[in-house]
Amino acid sequence: MCHWPHDDMEQRFQSLRGYGRLPRGRENRGRPLTDEQIASAILGLSITMPGWAGRAAAVMERRLPVGGSANAFADATTLRDALVKILSYEAIRGTVIAVQISTAECGVNSHGIASILYKNGDVRRRTSYVPRDAVSLLQPGAEDRFDPDQPYTMFGRGVTFNRRFFDRLSKRIAEDRKWPPPLPDDSAEYDTEEVERARRKRLRATNSSNYLNVGVDNHATWPREETLIEFDQYHMVLMPKTRENVQSISIDLYANRLTHEQAKTVINRFLSLLCWCDDHFAIVQDGWSGNPVPVPVKKRDLAFTTTYQWLFDRKLPTSGDVLKALAYYREARNAEHNFMVSYAVLNYYKIIEIQYPGWPDSTQWVSQNLPAILNDPRDQHGIQAFVDACGHEKPETYIYAACRVAVAHASPHRISDPDEAAELKRLHNAADIMRRLARRFIIDELGFSDTLWEPEEGQI
Known about the structure:
The chain is an alpha+beta fold. It folds into 3 domains: 8-178, no CATH class; 210-298; 320-445. Helix content is 40%, strand content 17%.
């Protein structure tokens, strides 16, 4: 009823080559495919997304027969071995009725199930294949209690190959091996692969690479193309800004021998130096790790709240303290949102200092109001991490000295380095607690409601 995209098979073959299931490189295009490689290519057809063909083949080829080796089709150890025997031996191929393959979820967080329907004399039989971690199904006799028509998923797509498919494919394989066809003049399918190979070589990406990709909002001078740079003893890739992507930095954790936190610290150090030399801002955003090649970071498209009936009816506060508190709160939330957490910590505490300036008064207020936040059963997010960070220090002292004073002053006793990833993580946790304190102060001490409409007289 519908046709596949014209480049579907090209994408599948590219994915299979990427996973090493087919020969790589233009120089190997004349190498005859082995039966194992052809079997992997068949398994690559089992998934609807062509770009995942290599992954599907890698997963499915290791499926094992339900009931163990005693119930294996043609004494094949794995699903791929069974396909190889179907392709290689006419007698075995003649018993096949159909091969059914699905990458649907066959167990909790476990994908991939297959069945081979065949005849043993006049008896119709079936051998099912499941993941190797389904240990109970790999035991002798498990095939008697296993129902392959009732997998874990309630809905799943699959593909079916009948015997005519294998007959025609085997015939074509035999002809091509006996009379190898000449190499095509145009091998454009390798162009993309060669470009990617050249890119990996230029960026020093290897099979062991594990890149951390971090977005950067900055106005400093930046390369217009992805560029490998050397910073001190480290190598990083600077990615340019595009219509869909922000400027970003990718650093190979494996090659640079760095942990996730150490790499973020190196990136912060680099941007601090760049900010100083170029005299423009550079804000590190969030990111992720795990890619074998540098990956651009998409522009942030943050969720927001809309409503059909927009309710807002507030008047401008008459209290100067309330106006200052709201201004500090907005500045703090903006800073927290834009990864300038030190400024957020400072502004949240400045709200408390509006009426309780100085060390004794402000810490006493925090000491009296913090338990209600730490023991709030409706919101325990980050509480345990905050308690752990306090250690043996009183929480009110920790908030004042290790957070407010540390970010406001360059004290040798309370060092806060905003380039250190561990320090930023600590301050983000503290800012979350201090934000709740600031809201409590504005509501309870300044008597200013957080409703969207003006409260009646006497109500907060």
